[in-house]
Design goal:
Helices cover about 25% and strands about 20% of the residues.
Length: about 200
């Protein structure tokens, strides 16, 4: 019964913060997304990373496309997620602008046969989409667990999320399998998790 209450609380919190980010006007979303992208690009973790897993935004998510053309991204390998089953996600580097198609969730996804697959161990930095976060970098996604399962394999990566300030809550209810972020980038500031692992410190 306790688990059921926790599940309901998480679902309600997720829905309220999705509504909050969806309430931003398109102009606000673009302006705030640009600020988030600038904060990511100017961070030490991004500057030092060679291979970065980012994402193409869907609906009200923070948009990171600006990173693709920033000078700080020159020479980096930018990979994108592709869900290949109900539980499995891989990272792909599209080879050209034709290596994209709309996936089952309405998200623009890389076409597998026109992309290079990247092993999770090769990734230096992951930027996750986010529905809810807190000051100590707790994160909630959409609830399917794709990132939580994939991040377990990213043993050499610094893990971050991109979100708008309206998505912040006092405390994200975390399950044992939920992966806390090392960092959360918003349009206003960068949140850094206390007591994160040494692998993250080496990039700070």
């Amino acid at each position: 019964m306790k688990e059921s209450k926790q599940y309901t609380q998480k679902k309600e919190l997720r829905q309220s913060k999705i509504r909050a980010r969806n309430s931003l006007s398109e102009e606000e979303r673009q302006r705030k997304s640009a600020s988030i992208s600038e904060k990511i690009a100017s961070s030490e973790v991004y500057k030092k990373a060679k291979t970065v897993l980012i994402y193409r935004a869907v609906k009200g998510e923070a948009q990171l496309e600006a990173l693709e053309t920033m000078p700080e991204s020159e020479g980096k390998r930018l990979a994108y997620p592709l869900c290949i089953s109900d539980s499995r996600m891989i990272a792909l580097i599209p080879q050209d602008e034709y290596a994209w198609e709309k996936g089952r969730f309405g998200i623009m996804e890389p076409v597998r046969r026109l992309s290079c697959e990247v092993e999770p161990e090769e990734i230096d930095l992951v930027i996750c989409p986010c529905t809810v976060f807190d000051e100590n970098c707790g994160r909630m996604g959409m609830g399917a667990g794709f990132y939580d399962r994939y991040l377990e394999k990213c043993v050499n990566a610094y893990i971050a999320a991109a979100a708008f300030e309206v998505q912040k809550t006092r405390l994200v209810p975390m399950e044992s399998w939920d992966k806390p972020m090392d960092m959360v980038f918003t349009e206003k500031r960068v949140y850094i998790r206390h007591h994160h692992e040494d692998r993250g410190r080496s990039l700070l």
